Amino acid sequence: MENSFFIDSSFLSEAALKKKHSLENDPSTRTNPMEYMEGMEVIDSDIRSKVISQMDAYDYTQYTAQDVQRALENTSCTIEDFKALLSPAAEPFLEKMAQKSRLGTSHHFGNTVYLFTPLYIANYCENYCVYCGFNCYNHIKRLKLNTEQIEHEMKVIADSGMEEVLILTGESKTASSIQYIGEACKIARKYFRMVGLEVYPVNTKDYAYLHECGADYVTVFQETYDIKKYETLHLMGHKRVWPYRFDAQERALRGGMRGVGFSALLGLSDFRKDALASALHVYYLQRKYPQAEMSLSCPRLRPIINNDKINPLDVHEKQLCQILCAYRIFLPYVGITVSSRESKEFRNGIVKIAATKVSAGVSTGIGDHESKYTGKESTTSEGDEQFEINDSRSFTSMYTDMSAEGMQPVLNDYLYI
Which residues neighbour 105 within 8 Å (Cβ) at sequence distance 6 or greater? Predict the structure, then answer.
C-alpha cells in the first residue's frame, strides 16, 4: 500500500512539520469549519438549527432538586425534564434515575443484551484530529487489508459465533474508497446477519450504494456539538466540516439505511451539553423518520499511541451512568451501546439498567483477529490501534458473563425475507 499521499510516514519531513506547527498555532491557516468542501452534498434540513439552539440555550445550573423530582414523577419525559435529569441537581437522584431507567429498559427490551464486534479494515487517515490515534500526523503503523485479508478476518470472527459486525476505517477516501468499503460490505453479508458501518461521512448516493452492498446501519460520531471547540480539535481534512458531519445520519436514512447511530465523545467539551445535543439529534430525527432504528452510544476519551495526556478525567462513571439513565428515560425506544472503552464491572452493571448493546472480542487494531481469537500467529500483517480498550473480554467470555448476570445475550433479531 503506497502512502505517498499521507503526511504520516516513518518520519515527518521539514515541510510537514512546518505545516503541522502552523495548523496548531495559527488559526488563520485553517479552513472555515462551517464551509462545505467540493463534492459535499448539502441537504435541506431544519434538524441542525433545532439541536444547536437548544444546546446553546441550555443552562444546567438553573435546574433544582424540585425540577428533577418532577421529571422523575412524570409518566413521559419532556425536553425540559431531560435537561433537568442531565443537570448537576440530578446527581443525588442517581439511584431513582437508575430504577426508572431499569423499568423502562425492561419494559421495552426485556432482559436482552445484543452482542457485536468491530472490525477495523484500514487505519489510513487524512484528518488531523488532535485526540485520535489515527490522525495523519501520528506516527503509527498504517495498514489497509485487501479483500482476501478482510474475508479471512471476517471468517475468524464468524467462526467464534458472532453474527453482527461493525466495519470501520480511518477517514481517507483515497485509501478507503466507497468501492473498497462496498466490497467489504459484500463480504460481510456472506458471514453476518447484521452489518454496520462506522466510516467517514458520505453523500446520499454513496450511502445508497453501500446499502445495496449489504450495509444495514451507519454510526457517525459528531465528537462534540460545540462548534467552537470542534474547530480547535479538527485542524485539517474533510472531518473539519462540522455541518456535513452533523447531517450524515439523515443522508444515510435518505440513502435507504435501516438504522443510524449517534454519539459525542465525552470529554472533548462540556459533556452535559454534548449529551443534550446527542439525544436531541435523535429526538428530532425520530419524528422526521419514524420508520428508522436509532441508537446512542456514550464513549469517553481513551489514551492513544504517542499521547499519554488524553484521559477521561472530567467525566466519571457516576456522571456517565447519569447520562445513560437520562437517555433511557427520555428516549425509551432507542438502543444504547456501551463500548469496550468502559470497564468490565461498569458494563456488567449498566446492561441491567439502561444499555441494550455491548461489544465483545474487540480489537481497534488492523488484521489481528486471528492472533487474538485463536491464539495462533496471525497470517496478516497488523496495523496499530486507534485507542486503548478497557474491557478485552472475548465473545465467549462476554456471552457467559452476560448470562451469569441474568441477561439473555442476543446475536441478531432481524430476518431478511
Answer: 328, 353, 354, 356
